[in-house]
Structures
1.
Amino acid sequence: MLNNYNTEDKVLLSVDCIIFGFDNEGLKILLIKRDFEPEKGKWSLMGGFLKKSESLNGAAIRVLNRYTGLQDIYMEQLYAYSEVDRDPVDRTISVAFYALINIENHNTALIQDHEAEWFSISKMPKLIFDHNEMVAHAIRRLRYRTSTKPVGFELLPEKFTMRQLLELYEAILDKELDKRNFISKINSLDILVKLNEKDMLSSRKGSYLYMFDKEKYDAKLLNHFVLNL
Amino acid sequence: MLNNYNTEDKVLLSVDCIIFGFDNEGLKILLIKRDFEPEKGKWSLMGGFLKKSESLNGAAIRVLNRYTGLQDIYMEQLYAYSEVDRDPVDRTISVAFYALINIENHNTALIQDHEAEWFSISKMPKLIFDHNEMVAHAIRRLRYRTSTKPVGFELLPEKFTMRQLLELYEAILDKELDKRNFISKINSLDILVKLNEKDMLSSRKGSYLYMFDKEKYDAKLLNHFVLNL
DNA sequence: ACAAAAGTGTTCATGCTACACCCATGC
DNA sequence: GCATGGGTGTAGCATGAACACTTTTGT
């Protein structure tokens, strides 16, 4: 009887993923129509139950892959939601994760199969259970993370213009930023490579493309920086 | 069969509490000798299993009360630890919380009953499982929280001197602070009341006692501030 | 008188903010 | 030649950092 915890309650544990994407319309979140009861047909975060053989991170990666086909995605654990009545069917504790993906990369067929849709964060529908609270929390965390880690690049294509980067940060922080100040702050971090290549789609003059230089970033042992925008 | 999740795995969920206290020797953590197998007799965080009828917060409050006799304590959820083999006995996911208590207030009899002891954070023993990792995480979070919320006051007696406050912040941040700069930054937040009362124990001259003014703080709708020390 | 901690302001350097004009190109 | 977005620098201001001496009082 010593080597177990038999008298203790066991519960269901799930993960829910807040998946952020960014396109020229702004910051978006990927939602699905829930395909099982209860609340079938309502908008919901992507989730799944934890299996005994995987960690929470593993479960979140599995869920994300199932709905987007993506792997090797930036993902961070947010918070555990545990109100007793949060799921009306059975006692379920859910651990929320948020993920940042390049919106161009995901598998659109998979998205359609699951009746998933991208929503602007400013036009989110009502979600099931406490999912709206999770989303609000994720947005707060993303805003904070922006000032301590170069997470923005996760949401952009590999090559991007300064304007795209600026608009991304404006979308995340929900405020206008001064173009010149923004660029000089980004440049002072010294973690971008300017390419000899221009994006000619957005203007006649064309604007230089940049890439995030992960090696340079790692080389500085910058496990965090401070970026005040 | 629709209104349940019968086919899903259920797991054990526990909470572990990192309890911080502060005295004139520095920042401390309350640990217990684990009183059941496995790892019985080893140093451990205070923990307990989640019951079906309570939230994680509820469980953490219950555990904290059981070991310290305290209620209405500042507490914050940290992170969910879920490596598959983190507990050798049974699959257990643990959600860590940290709490800040006034070290003078707790019930010393209870502490003795449980063979609990205060350890300086610089002299922590090896703990069971992944508890050392939890502690490291809690210290990081506390350092960050210090710059966004007036959490320091939770660790001090109701009335305290500027020197105590300074030494507390030095202990949390693990660096020396300039006395004059510190005091003027704290004063500029305008959330303290200076009392007409001196602490005569620490010097011949005596030093004024202060209290945290929660009403003033709330009145400013300061859900967070920035304090760069 | 002296020891021990309390209390108190100023200067300097840095970083942040605000702000406007020329450039290159396709049409 | 003009319309469109791209790209660039500076001056004023606010904040943070560094720094030393006087006060009080019990012994």
2.
Amino acid sequence: MTLRLTNTLSRHLEDFRPLEPGKVSIYCCGVTVYDLCHLGHARSYIAWDVLRRYLIWRGYAVTFVQNYTDIDDKILNRAAEEGSSMQAVSERNIDAFVADMARLNILPADRMPRATQSLGAIRALIEVLEAKGAAYSADGDVYFAVMKHAGYGKLSGRDLSEQQDNAAGRVATEEEARKQHPFDFALWKGTKPGEPSWESPWGPGRPGWHIECSAMVREELGDTIDIHLGGADLVFPHHENEIAQSEAASGKELARYWLHNGMVNVGGQKMSKSLGNFTTIRALLDSGVSPMTLRLFTLQAHYRKPLDFTAEALEAAATGWKGLNAALSLTAAGCSTAITPAQGPSDPAALPPDLAAARSRFAAAMDDDLNTSAALAVLFELARPLRALANRLERGDGAAATEATDPALAARGQLLQELAAVLGLRPEATAAGTMSDAEIELQIEARRAAKAGRDFATADRIRDSLKAQGIELIDKPGGLTDWLRS
RNA sequence: GGCGGCAUGGCCAAGUGGUAAGGCAGAGGAUUGCAAAUCCUUUACCCCCAGUUCGAAUCUGGGUGCCGCCUCCA
């Protein structure tokens, strides 16, 4: 079986073959750290985290590099607004990014270069481009000459002569005058009063956005990498420009596979800062949506397709996750001593036939351009009996305790946990209430007394009040009541 | 105007030639003072038109609708 990925360069599904057998180098476009990350970022980085975990599971040694853009107009604007510095804004948002990603169980990149720490590499690359005649300087700025680069447009499939100049209406006219061609873009911007700047052969200034990624890839991973990742909105101009810069400088292909994730939409429109229709990751998580619910929500759709964010869909994911979590928690909590967490990839040959088949269906789904939706279906099927058992165990079913020692079930639990981990799904502790056990028992006793006196209004009031504090009551035959923190 | 993508049950969403995964919701049953939770069971011919084929959601052509990008963007 071969992993197949949709390569934006060809617009087709291609067999994935790394440059060096067994090794994969990946560069992922990171965030501009002017603000908190929203669900669009979450979706993107969850998708790429799954790609990375899957490659690792398949036995590849993966090197994953992701940048922080910490030199940018938006960061400067933010700093000006709050009377702080570009560095202060950046540092704060980098800390927030790290924390948000950790909550979502996204593996930290192996290396995370920052623009401010890559000035040497950036200047060196611009010098190469200038020496090769691919760049020109004008009034302290340096621009890349798109017409000098033969392949310009190959990623986004664009013919520059067909493009409407300034279709988005955002071009600064004074900058246009310095350019030889409207689509030329800045490699280096001459300093402006009051802005941070760095020394360079072209005078003090700061790097343009596109050049940092080219410089970082070159410095961290070399001229050609296996996979380059990013959001679909980066295809043009960012990735197109990255290709132009890197390939003009090295004469070699920048990346063999370009993968792009679809946007998160709200009411049919792209979630973005500029539209103001965004929900930040932490706002969502702080509102009580669990990280794994968000993960499941994003993985239910294919990574290339747009994903509509609605309260209903999120709620559906939350309920779905509850069931999966019950099965995973059974494994993790060791309710059965026979079930222990899996350590790395299982050996299909050692599995019972039904589990081996499930494992192979999972792998086939993932091999098919990371079809996480189909892969999740396998997880749900694996989870079904475990989830039923977990729920019976929680409710003190005596027979369930015996069933839980069944080795076949243990193997199933182990496989479930292994495959869930490939998707970055891990058991999640449910939110614990603040009441002590004794207090809860007291309330249950009061409710029992009320029920005995047929005062159901009081009984229901007690039940509702406990429910509001996250305590779920389960009435059982014989007038007994169990409770769970949910 | 150019480039790219999408259209599957009430909602989300797999499936790219052989007779529709999975999740949520709904329905029925078990259980309950009533619930909740849980368990079991259950629900679609795939935007429209034409064509290719023994056979199409799946291929071809033509429509319609929606989205992304065309120098802020994951």
